[in-house]
Design goal:
Shape: elongated
Number of domains: 2
Oligomer: single chain
Structural class: alpha+beta
CATH architecture of the largest domain: 3-Layer(aba) Sandwich
Radius of gyration: 23 Å
Distance between the termini: 10 Å
CATH topology of the largest domain: Aminopeptidase
Number of helices: 10
CATH superfamily of the largest domain: Zn peptidases
Helix content: 25-40%
Order of helices and strands: HHEEEEEHHEHEEEEHEEEHEEHEHEEEH
Mean pLDDT: 94
Length: 377
């Protein structure tokens, strides 16, 4: 079947899409606290008259744009949560060609694009009514940080293997095609001692000192460049007061590697170092608090080839890449999945985050073209 490919939403619809992204961004949605934002999207799905609008027990929001054929559905997902705490200042700053605000690109714009996709397909009425299979739109929770892809795991279990594929949307990273899922292992490392008074009990072990000593050993581990492997201590906390020998301290450790075997080898080494740091008056424990499984589609896979072509015909340089996204989950289970960006920007996971608005037109164009052609490629 030959599709009539639209070039883009019109200018007014692009502005409407940006306004929607701002409305979403203004609703705090820290991981595990996405309820208000999910409720807003639920109402927007209903207002668009999507079919079977539902919300599961975790908070994922589902809506269906029905197709007329019996092809398995394509599932398009965008995560609701952000890395920012509830009390973060979410002030928006707009300037020509730019919108700056925490979470505007990661991932308020991605969530807004679920609705923008509906608008674009309905603009092409023949296309919207002729999709050979259902198009499911999902705003999912728990992608960031210690959310551990719980939302996406529930989505994949909901649809089981009865899908044609998964397309994950991120607001930024236009041109990137994440077809390889980067493996991630995360630990909470806790040190415990008897503690005491900094003067009276001087010489007794401090949980803070013991944890810092372990951290120094961890960051001295030589890491492979091929496959690229990383180690990061992201959070450190503990102690009671400046004049107290700390009885407890902890840190959060993030390990990543392009290859599952290398990640497992590094994880085993870290666990051994934690065990070796124990002695009668010092207890250290490493608890796995996050795991993002690895997986991949080869460059030759039709889904990846189509994404490359859709970017190229819209004047965007494609960059097949590896990343840690919701696509990890279906990829790890052998299901076709990629992640695409919608516009350019920078500062993700910082309060200086911003998106560039002008590339969004092409970003939406490549998205709509991908959806239209995917059923027949």
């Amino acid at each position: 079947m030959n599709w009539s490919i639209p070039h883009t939403l019109d200018a007014s619809q692009i502005e409407e899409l940006l306004d929607l992204a701002i409305s979403i961004q203004q609703i705090p949605a820290p991981t595990f606290g996405e309820g208000r934002r999910a409720a807003y999207i639920y109402k927007r799905f209903q207002a668009e008259h999507l079919k079977d609008v539902t919300q599961d027990s975790l908070g994922n929001v589902y809506g269906c744009l029905p197709g007329k054929g019996k092809s398995p559905p394509l599932v398009v997902c965008a995560h609701l949560d952000t890395v920012f705490p509830e009390a973060t200042d979410l002030t928006i700053t707009r300037s020509p060609g730019k919108i700056a605000a925490p979470g505007i690109g990661d991932n308020s714009l991605g969530v807004a694009a679920l609705l923008g996709l509906v608008w674009a397909l309905r603009k092409q009425k023949a296309t919207a009514s002729a999709l050979p299979g259902d198009l499911w739109l999902v705003a999912n929770v728990c992608e960031e940080g210690l959310g551990n892809l719980a939302g996406m795991r529930a989505v994949v279990e909901h649809f089981a293997e009865q899908v044609k594929g998964y397309l994950i949307l991120e607001g930024m990273a236009l041109g990137q095609i994440y077809h390889r899922g980067l493996g991630v292992q995360r630990y909470k490392i806790t040190a415990e001692t008897a503690g005491g008074h900094s003067w009276v009990d001087y010489g007794k072990p401090s949980a803070v000192h013991e944890l810092v000593a372990l951290i120094n050993r961890l960051i001295a581990i030589p890491l492979a460049k091929q496959p690229r492997t990383t180690l990061n201590i992201g959070v450190v906390s503990g102690g009671t007061s400046v004049n107290t020998i700390a009885a407890q301290a902890c840190c959060l450790l993030d390990l990543r590697s392009e290859q599952a075997d290398a990640l497992q080898e590094l994880s085993s080494l870290v666990e051994a170092m934690i065990r070796d740091a124990n002695r009668p008056t010092v207890r250290l424990v490493g608890e796995i608090v996050g795991h993002r499984p690895a997986g991949m589609l080869p460059l030759s896979h039709p889904m990846v080839r189509l994404a490359i072509n859709c970017l190229e015909v819209n004047g965007i340089q494609p960059h097949p890449n590896i990343g840690s996204t919701d696509a990890n989950l279906p990829l790890s289970r052998g299901l076709p999945a990629i992640c695409l960006g919608l516009t350019s920007g920078a500062g993700a996971h910082t309060t200086n985050e911003y998106i560039e608005t002008r590339p969004l037109e092409r970003g939406m164009s490549q998205l709509v073209e991908f959806i239209q052609r995917y059923y027949t490629e």
